[in-house]
Amino acid sequence: MSKRTMALALGIALGAFSPGSSQAAEDPALLKDMTAVIALLGHPCGQVVSVVTKGENDHVATCKDGNRYRVYLDAAGRVVAEKQ
Question: According to the model, what pLDDT value does residue 27 have?
Fold first, then answer.
């Protein structure tokens, strides 16, 4: 997969978690998208089971294996997943 395609996929998936969406933590499609974002960034997760929105484009995802990641856009507009 090209870097451009991966960046586009990450942007679309992260955009689905806007703060206005109250169903973000419960919608299986959104949890699947966040799982894909974390996997594309090369972090172990398995499956995201919950998401807490901290702000616009700033979320904490909890994985089935117990790992937690802060997923957000940095100043350059790139998607970042930091282990918590």
Answer: 75
